[in-house]
Specification:
Blueprint lengths: L5 H23 L1 H8 L3 H20 L1 H8 L1 H21 L3 H15 L2 H9 L6 H30 L5 H20 L15 H24 L4 H24 L13 H31 L4 H25 L7 H18 L8 H27 L7 H42 L7 H18 L1 H45 L5
Length: 506
């Protein structure tokens, strides 16, 4: 069975790995890439919003295109467009070229993960299909763990373009494999899903504005809170109208009405919650480790990879346990317990924390949480819709569309929380930063005395003030980050109680 379906299984794992690799590597290396293409944070935000918006629309059209093109033509076309976009990014040296490349990459590759999961259903029901699910989850874990390590490696070597050459190689291998096993027969015209250009336009515009406002709020939220909230609510209303319209149609583009089941609704809510937490943690952790604890870029990437490898190890254990003990509740309880422990370990760190003994265990627990909750939710959410290929495809498409928005929302929540608490803690600590404060005078004098033999009295005094100012920023970031991890503990505790009390996923 493995040999017969080897090309399919390898492609499923490879496409899932590519999706998480490209997202993780570009997010981790965003600051160096911005510097190389001379882009401001706001301009890079626009690129991210464009990519996510196009991803939502492309994912929504995935089944519609497969029905008309056939699996092989669809995948070869998607991979070709993706490779073209990656090539443009790989040779780019300015903002315009890089933006064009990312847009083309989104058009081709945004549906990779969705397509990979749907390809699993090309296997006959039974043990073979579960093997496909295991390969899919393994690809997710590998891509998640490898992204920060590879990204930090290419950035340190000053070859950030290598990110895209790596993606091109992986996508090319997937294209060759697709020609080996994918069918190329379009679905009969009577069985095809209809489309609505007006609704797709509504989804495109609403999603773009929602994602752009979320990204833009990093910089303008506290100055233009009312305007941003208004536009966010209007954009969210547009997304709701899209789904509401599909729900009311007799021949919908997405079978929303048929998916209104408690298992699916709760499962998608669980996915969205997990992606919000994942987006928040993915933003906070590198910033916390670099700004508050002073670790270098390559060290952060390496240890984040070690930590996220916990997701792979967790999945190996789950794959052994699930066939014998498939009940999902214990995995949810273990996952949210891991998230609580992650918050506890990081909520009491000091600048002297050791990466191996104090931080790596927390990073491993974060990886365990991701796999325990996401993999279990993936196996349980769609259990009632797997009997119908089109319905299952639409169910997974909707989940993937909402995941794009949830990840952006998580990053926004973490950014705004950190800005708010860092500013508050900075103001509290800054009360001591004055010439009349005894503690401030003592510290500046001690530093000046230590620096005077090497720098001279005048420069030593200036350096001591600058050093204390830097320490002030570091301390405020450290305290604000610890408050974030306490918030994670509270949220995870609530999720743990809910997971123990709910009866849908027993």
């Amino acid at each position: 069975m493995y040999r017969k379906n080897a090309a399919l299984l390898i492609t499923v794992g490879l496409l899932c790995t590519l999706e998480y690799l490209q997202a993780g590597m570009i997010a981790f290396a965003s600051a160096p890439i911005r510097g190389e293409i001379d882009a401001s944070p706001e301009e890079f935000t626009l690129i991210a919003a464009l990519y996510a918006c196009i991803a939502v629309v492309v994912i929504s059209k995935q089944r519609w295109l497969v029905e008309r093109l056939g699996w092989r033509n669809f995948m070869l076309g998607s991979i070709s467009i993706y490779v073209l976009g990656a090539f443009v990014c790989g040779v780019s040296s300015d903002l315009t070229t890089f933006t064009a490349g990312r847009v083309v990459m989104a058009l081709g590759g945004a549906s990779f993960m969705t397509s990979a999961r749907l390809m699993v259903n090309l296997l006959p029901p039974g043990p073979g299909r579960f093997v496909g699910v295991k390969v899919f989850a393994t690809g997710l874990a590998i891509g998640t763990a490898a992204a920060p390590f590879l990204s930090s490696l290419v950035v340190v070597e000053d070859t950030w373009h290598a990110i895209f050459w790596l993606l091109i190689v992986g996508a090319s291998v997937a294209a060759v494999l697709c020609t080996r096993f994918l069918p190329n027969i379009p679905i009969h015209e009577d069985d095809r899903t209809p489309s609505s250009p007006a609704n797709i336009l509504l989804l495109s515009v609403s999603t773009f504005f929602l994602l752009y406002v979320l990204q833009r709020s990093y910089y303008d939220f506290y100055n233009e809170m009312f305007i941003l909230l208004t536009f966010a609510l209007l954009a969210a209303l547009g997304v709701y109208i899209f789904f509401h319209a599909e729900h009311g149609k007799e021949a919908p583009f997405l079978k929303v009405k048929d998916l209104m089941q408690s298992r699916y609704i709760l499962g998608v809510a669980l996915f969205c919650f997990t992606y919000i937490v994942l987006g928040s943690n993915n933003y906070i952790l590198p910033y916390f480790l670099q700004t508050a604890l002073g670790y270098s870029w390559d060290t952060i990437g390496t240890f984040q990879a070690f930590g996220l490898a916990g997701a792979l190890l967790t999945w190996i254990v789950m794959a052994i346990v699930i066939p014998k003990y498939p009940a999902p509740k214990k995995f949810f309880v273990a996952g949210f317990s891991a998230l609580i422990c992650f918050g506890v370990l990081l909520s009491s760190l000091t600048p002297d924390a050791n990466m191996w003994s104090n931080i790596l265990p927390a990073l491993v627990l974060n990886g365990c949480f991701v796999m325990l909750v996401l993999a279990t939710a993936a196996m349980q959410t769609f259990r009632d819709v797997t009997h119908h290929d089109t319905l299952f495809a639409h169910a997974y498409q909707i989940k993937s569309m909402l995941a794009q928005i949830a990840m952006a929302l998580g990053t926004t929540v973490a950014t705004l929380f950190l800005q708010w608490r860092t500013t508050l803690q900075y103001n509290n600590l800054n009360g001591h930063f004055s010439s009349g404060d005894p503690l401030y005078l003592e510290q500046t004098q001690l530093l000046a005395q230590a620096l005077t033999p090497a720098a001279g009295a005048g420069p030593a005094s200036q350096i001591s003030v600058s050093t204390l100012a830097q320490s002030l920023h570091q301390q405020s970031t450290l305290v604000a980050s610890m408050e974030y991890f306490w918030a994670v503990i509270i949220v995870a505790s609530i999720a743990l109680v809910v997971s123990m009390m709910q009866k849908t996923f027993k």
